[in-house]
Amino acid sequence: MSEEKLDLILTKLASMASDLKSVKKEQQNTNERLTLIESKQNIIYEQTGKLTEYPTETMLEFDQLATKEDLSYFDKKITEHDREILKIKNRA
Protein backbone atom coordinates (compact mmCIF):
# COMPACT_ATOMS: atom_id res chain seq x y z
CA MET A 1 0.00 0.00 0.00
CA SER A 2 1.08 3.47 -0.60
CA GLU A 3 1.94 5.97 2.08
CA GLU A 4 -1.01 8.17 1.07
CA LYS A 5 -3.53 5.37 1.49
CA LEU A 6 -2.15 4.52 4.93
CA ASP A 7 -2.37 8.17 5.97
CA LEU A 8 -5.94 8.31 4.70
CA ILE A 9 -6.84 5.16 6.65
CA LEU A 10 -5.23 6.54 9.81
CA THR A 11 -7.06 9.83 9.38
CA LYS A 12 -10.37 7.99 8.97
CA LEU A 13 -9.63 5.85 12.05
CA ALA A 14 -8.79 8.95 14.09
CA SER A 15 -12.00 10.57 12.91
CA MET A 16 -13.98 7.45 13.84
CA ALA A 17 -12.31 7.31 17.26
CA SER A 18 -13.23 10.95 17.82
CA ASP A 19 -16.81 10.27 16.75
CA LEU A 20 -16.92 7.26 19.06
CA LYS A 21 -15.76 9.42 21.98
CA SER A 22 -18.55 11.89 21.17
CA VAL A 23 -21.11 9.10 21.06
CA LYS A 24 -19.87 7.75 24.42
CA LYS A 25 -20.10 11.22 25.97
CA GLU A 26 -23.64 11.66 24.63
CA GLN A 27 -24.57 8.22 25.94
CA GLN A 28 -23.21 9.15 29.35
CA ASN A 29 -25.26 12.37 29.33
CA THR A 30 -28.34 10.41 28.28
CA ASN A 31 -27.80 7.91 31.10
CA GLU A 32 -27.50 10.73 33.64
CA ARG A 33 -30.70 12.32 32.37
CA LEU A 34 -32.47 8.96 32.44
CA THR A 35 -31.39 8.42 36.06
CA LEU A 36 -32.74 11.87 36.95
CA ILE A 37 -36.03 11.13 35.20
CA GLU A 38 -36.34 7.80 37.03
CA SER A 39 -35.79 9.45 40.41
CA LYS A 40 -38.43 12.07 39.59
CA GLN A 41 -40.78 9.31 38.49
CA ASN A 42 -40.28 7.53 41.83
CA ILE A 43 -41.16 10.75 43.65
CA ILE A 44 -44.32 11.04 41.53
CA TYR A 45 -45.27 7.44 42.39
CA GLU A 46 -44.80 8.11 46.10
CA GLN A 47 -46.83 11.31 46.02
CA THR A 48 -49.58 9.66 44.00
CA GLY A 49 -49.70 6.87 46.56
CA LYS A 50 -50.05 9.39 49.37
CA LEU A 51 -52.77 11.27 47.49
CA THR A 52 -54.80 8.09 47.04
CA GLU A 53 -54.17 7.02 50.64
CA TYR A 54 -55.73 10.16 52.09
CA PRO A 55 -59.20 9.77 50.50
CA THR A 56 -59.22 6.08 51.42
CA GLU A 57 -58.49 6.90 55.07
CA THR A 58 -61.08 9.67 55.03
CA MET A 59 -63.75 7.35 53.66
CA LEU A 60 -62.93 4.81 56.38
CA GLU A 61 -63.38 7.55 58.98
CA PHE A 62 -66.78 8.43 57.50
CA ASP A 63 -67.81 4.80 57.76
CA GLN A 64 -67.08 4.92 61.50
CA LEU A 65 -69.10 8.07 62.19
CA ALA A 66 -72.44 7.80 63.94
CA THR A 67 -75.42 7.83 61.59
CA LYS A 68 -78.74 9.61 62.07
CA GLU A 69 -80.27 6.32 63.18
CA ASP A 70 -77.47 5.83 65.72
CA LEU A 71 -78.06 9.29 67.18
CA SER A 72 -81.79 8.63 67.40
CA TYR A 73 -81.10 5.35 69.24
CA PHE A 74 -78.64 7.04 71.63
CA ASP A 75 -81.15 9.79 72.36
CA LYS A 76 -83.85 7.22 73.26
CA LYS A 77 -81.45 5.17 75.39
CA ILE A 78 -80.18 8.23 77.28
CA THR A 79 -83.75 9.34 77.96
CA GLU A 80 -84.60 5.82 79.12
CA HIS A 81 -81.57 5.71 81.42
CA ASP A 82 -82.33 9.17 82.82
CA ARG A 83 -85.83 7.99 83.75
CA GLU A 84 -84.45 4.85 85.39
CA ILE A 85 -81.91 6.90 87.36
CA LEU A 86 -84.65 9.30 88.48
CA LYS A 87 -86.81 6.37 89.62
CA ILE A 88 -83.91 4.88 91.61
CA LYS A 89 -83.17 8.28 93.24
CA ASN A 90 -86.81 8.77 94.18
CA ARG A 91 -86.91 5.35 95.92
CA ALA A 92 -83.87 6.11 98.04
Contiguous uncertain segments of 5+ residues: none
Task: Write down the overall mean pLDDT.
Answer: 90
- Sum up the overall morphology in one term: rod-shaped
Strand content: under 5%
Q: Sketch the topology as an H/E string, one letter per element.
A: HH
Sheet with most strands:
none
User: What's the end-to-end separation, in Å?
Assistant: 129 Å
The percent of residues in helical segments reads over 70%
Count the E strands: 0
C-alpha Rg (nearest Å): 40 Å
Number of H/I helices:
2
Strand-pairing-aware structural class: mainly alpha
Describe the structure.
The chain is mainly alpha-helical. It has a domain at 3-66. 93% of the residues lie in helices and 0% in strands. It has two helices and no strands. The protein has helices at residues 3-64, 68-91. 0% of the residues are buried.
Summarize the structure.
With about 90 residues, the chain is mainly α. The protein is built from two helices and no strands.
Write the SSE topology:
Layout: H1 3-64, H2 68-91
Features:
92 residues, mainly alpha, rod-shaped
